[in-house]
């Protein structure tokens, strides 16, 4: 029966046996490289028409690689076209090498060995071309031809069913080899359960089990459809999460509006209380006048017209009292409605938070979803270098945001390949060191708060600090004296293009990989730290956010703007006295737990040279850690910790160093989420590249930070002022009139002053506990404590005695002016004041030069 003849080639299924060398057996290991070794020379030369590397397609991992390739190959084409236009631009070949390296590893992981070998050859060719400097158009054209062939191989992986229609065994093995391999991978997958009995498939493939061997090939394809649906549903989930975030932002705006309304209601309460008091005085005055005039009239007859006049006055006061009572009733109703609205917003906040948490849980996937991929990467890497390695994954049930896991899967593979190639010793070396021939790799996953901590450990020989130092000196990354700590030297393994391998292999030596690990983790708002001990191994610890959609940040104010820093990066927030901060700036660093930590003013790291910090008695300082690096960030204000919705910042800002994302506050303000450590490192590199600066240039690069020690109250033993640095001067306005406070604040803010508002003397004294203003603007008549008593308290305190006081009041009589001057007031102005006169006084007190 002719249709049965093709079944006899079941004997060639013997090539499925090379899969068994995944179990490290000495006889089988030499046989694996034999075919690829011979074929590499041929496959490296295009046009032979014979593709020898054997594909071992993994049906579970192939869809993942195809999805990655659909993005990677167009990017590769775009990079090649850009290289054609700009042959001298080295960024293009570097980007091409990174793409080729990533796609090569993914292809081999999915079992597409033919494509992986071709990409490896193309990577070698591209690297050689890059070293030529400015390649010719023909050289790059050769790379384009190789790219076209790689695209063809990728297309054949995407559509393996078409060649299957031939039904002819010979063409399947020759002209359309990928289709034969695609068919064979189905049979191999079905045969995997009986791999312990290698003779069984030869007989059972001729009988009825032959059909089940094909049917399961269709069954594994079944999960591919849900995978597509899952990907579509993931996009919908992303949109739902974004919409839930918008709801949260809208609720925050409402909360801000309710807060403003509550503040206005509080002002109304004070005004109604004041109006009641004034009306009571009017009533008492009216009653007193009526009584005195009636007594003065004596026995004479009372004038009816005069009686009507007094009666009308009483009537007006009663009507005013009723109006005030009505205003009080309206105020009471507004307060009750506001409380009800606040309760409703609190309920909505709880429901929104639960909705976001549920959506987050749907977005989460277990780390176990990539475990098989990591096992396969480890097996392939160990097979290529002829080492025995055992991978142990613990905590694989921990759930991580799908976006985080997808983005970090490639870096995780780099770490495992790196551990196999560089970390684990050869069998002979391990035996000589008294270790087991089988190297141990450990991947440990655990959740800590809003972070996922993933540790990659090996029991190899550890990082060779001397070798890294020597290579860094040869590459010019360190001076010839090699003056750098071991921690700094170990950190060089993350430098782009750095590798201690003496020769380039398929697995290592190009210096591409470790820099990707750190850059990808940093892009997600995470960090990477290392630990290594000679003879005991190396640990890489990666801290990643639990989710990308919602994160905890610390909001800070600096230079008149608001910024956000991920909470996981903040180790400590300190309050430094003004003289201590001045000393830290003179020294260029702060001492924290026995270590010198570089000090920076946050706006200066962003290139803002015009912003000036706020001079205050206690200044907030944040200790930030990312990876193995720490910086101290000087900010004007720490607003507090918030849970925010992370927004996509787009391709323009995504390429900028130190910007991890953005969020929208309830006020509608867009706030950047920053990682100050890369910003500090970038500034340090710029200073190294720039010519040596003169002392007068240093303050601008250090940041616009001032001598915060008030000149009127120098402290004993305080360090010298930070020369050339300036501060934003503070003016405190103390007045019970909301209108006066707002108008004065608008005027002074326009002139560049920072304004602190206080509604009476008691409120102002509370502010003086934390802020030392340069000038005080004070009214006389205020509730709780008037301007005279407040002035007496300020002049009686040694800390505030030297602060200039300008009294602004409607009491312009000479006796009030003289009394104010006796108490120590520096200037006395009447209401309404002249703006130019007030600004001139303030400028003179703060030492400004008027234009």
Protein traits:
alpha/beta; Four Helix Bundle (Hemerythrin (Met), subunit A); Heat Shock Protein 90; 5 domains; 5-stranded mixed beta sheet; 27 helices; 22 strands; disordered N terminus; kinase
Descriptive account of the structure:
The chain has 851 residues and is α/β, with parallel strands linked by helices. The protein folds into five domains: 224 residues, Up-down Bundle (Four Helix Bundle (Hemerythrin (Met), subunit A)), CATH 1.20.120; 119 residues; 160 residues, Histidine kinase-like ATPase, C-terminal domain (Heat Shock Protein 90); 153 residues, SH3 type barrels (Roll), CATH 2.30.30.40; 117 residues, 3-Layer(aba) Sandwich (Rossmann fold), CATH 3.40.50. It is built from 27 helices and 22 strands. A five-stranded mixed β-sheet has the order 2-4-5-7-6, with helices on one face. It has a five-stranded mixed β-sheet with strand order 10-13-14-12-11, sandwiched between helices. Helix 24 packs parallel to helix 25. The protein is elongated, with a radius of gyration of 38 Å. The N and C termini lie far apart (106 Å). The N terminus is likely disordered. It is an enzyme of class 2 (transferase). This is Chemotaxis protein CheA. GO terms for molecular function: phosphorelay sensor kinase activity.
């Amino acid at each position: 029966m002719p249709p049965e003849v093709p079944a006899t080639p079941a004997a060639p299924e013997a090539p499925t046996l090379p899969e068994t060398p995944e179990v490290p057996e000495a006889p089988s290991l030499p046989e694996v490289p034999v075919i690829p070794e011979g074929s590499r020379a041929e496959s490296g030369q295009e046009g032979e028409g014979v593709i020898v590397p054997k594909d071992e397609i993994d049906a579970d991992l192939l869809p993942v690689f195809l999805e990655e390739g659909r993005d990677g190959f167009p990017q590769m084409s775009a990079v090649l076209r850009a290289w054609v236009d700009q042959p001298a631009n080295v960024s293009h070949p570097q980007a091409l090498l990174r793409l080729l390296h990533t796609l090569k590893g993914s292809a081999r992981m999915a079992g597409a060995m033919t494509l992986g070998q071709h990409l490896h050859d193309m990577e070698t060719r591209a690297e050689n071309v890059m070293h030529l400097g400015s390649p010719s158009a023909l050289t790059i054209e050769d790379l384009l031809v190789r790219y076209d062939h790689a695209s063809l191989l990728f297309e054949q992986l995407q559509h393996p069913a078409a060649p299957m229609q031939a039904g002819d065994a010979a063409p399947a093995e020759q002209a359309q080899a990928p289709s034969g391999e695609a068919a064979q991978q189905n049979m191999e997958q079905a045969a995997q359960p009986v791999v312990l009995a290698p003779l069984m498939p030869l007989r059972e493939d001729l009988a009825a089990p032959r059909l089940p061997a094909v049917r399961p090939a269709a069954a594994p394809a079944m999960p591919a459809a849900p995978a597509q649906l899952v990907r579509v549903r993931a996009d919908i989930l992303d949109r739902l999460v974004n919409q839930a975030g918008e709801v949260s932002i809208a609720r925050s705006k409402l909360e801000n509006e309710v807060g403003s309304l509550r503040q206005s209601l509080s002002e109304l309460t004070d005004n109604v209380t004041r109006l009641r008091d004034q009306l009571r005085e009017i009533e008492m005055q009216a009653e007193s006048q009526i009584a005195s005039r009636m007594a003065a009239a004596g026995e004479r007859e009372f004038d009816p017209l005069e009686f009507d006049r007094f009666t009308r006055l009483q009537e007006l006061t009663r009507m005013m009292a009723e109006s005030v009572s009505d205003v009080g009733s309206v105020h009471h109703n507004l307060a009750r409605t506001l409380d009800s609205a606040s309760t409703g917003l609190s309920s909505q906040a709880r429901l929104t938070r639960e909705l976001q948490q549920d959506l987050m849980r749907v977005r989460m996937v277990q780390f176990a979803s990539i475990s098989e991929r990591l096992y396969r990467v480890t097996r392939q890497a160990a097979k290529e270098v002829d080492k025995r390695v055992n991978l142990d994954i613990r905590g694989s049930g921990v759930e991580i945001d799908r976006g985080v896991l997808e983005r970090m899967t490639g870096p995780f593979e780099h770490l495992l390949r790196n551990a196999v190639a560089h970390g684990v010793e050869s069998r002979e070396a391990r035996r000589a060191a008294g270790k087991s021939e089988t190297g141990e790799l450990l991947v440990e996953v655990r959740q800590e708060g809003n972070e996922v901590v993933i540790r990659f450990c090996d029991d190899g020989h550890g990082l060779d600090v001397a070798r890294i130092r020597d290579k860094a000196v040869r590459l010019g990354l360190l001076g010839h004296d090699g003056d750098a700590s071991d921690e700094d030297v170990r950190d060089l393994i993350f430098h782009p293009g750095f590798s201690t391998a003496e020769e380039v292999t398929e697995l290592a030596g190009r210096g591409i990989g470790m820099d990707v690990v750190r850059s990808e983790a940093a892009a997600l708002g995470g960090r990477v730290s290392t630990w290594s001990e000679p003879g005991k191994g190396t640990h890489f610890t990666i801290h990643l956010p639990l989710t990308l959609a919602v994160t905890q940040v610390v909001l800070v104010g600096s230079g008149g703007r608001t910024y956000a820093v991920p909470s996981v990066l903040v180790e400590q927030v300190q309050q430094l006295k003004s003289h201590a901060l001045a000393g830290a700036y003179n020294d260029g660093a702060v001492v924290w737990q026995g270590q010198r930590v570089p000090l920076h003013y946050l706006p200066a790291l962003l290139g803002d040279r015009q912003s000036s910090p706020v001079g205050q008695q206690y200044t907030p300082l944040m200790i930030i850690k990312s990876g193995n690096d720490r910086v101290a960030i000087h900010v004007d204000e720490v607003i507090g910790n918030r849970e925010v919705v992370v927004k996509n910042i787009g391709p323009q800002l995504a390429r900028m160093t130190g910007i991890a994302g953005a969020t929208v506050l309830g006020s509608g303000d867009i706030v950047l989420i920053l990682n100050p450590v890369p910003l500090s490192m970038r500034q340090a590199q710029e200073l190294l590249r720039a010519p040596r600066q003169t002392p007068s240039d240093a303050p601008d690069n250090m940041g616009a930070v001032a001598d915060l020690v008030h000149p009127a109250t120098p402290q004993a033993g305080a360090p010298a002022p930070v020369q050339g640095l300036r501060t934003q001067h503070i003016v405190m306005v103390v007045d019970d009139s909301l209108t006066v406070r707002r108008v004065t604040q608008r005027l002074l803010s326009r002139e560049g002053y920072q304004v602190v508002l206080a509604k009476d003397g008691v409120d102002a004294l509370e502010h003086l506990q934390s802020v030392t203003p340069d000038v005080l603007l004070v009214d006389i008549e205020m509730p709780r404590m008037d301007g005279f008593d407040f002035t007496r308290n300020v002049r009686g305190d040694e800390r505030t005695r030297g602060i200039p006081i300008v009294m602004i009041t409607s009491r312009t009589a000479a006796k009030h002016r003289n009394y104010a001057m006796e108490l120590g007031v520096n200037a006395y102005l009447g209401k309404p004041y002249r703006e130019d006169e007030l600004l001139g006084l303030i400028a003179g007190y703060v030492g400004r030069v008027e234009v």
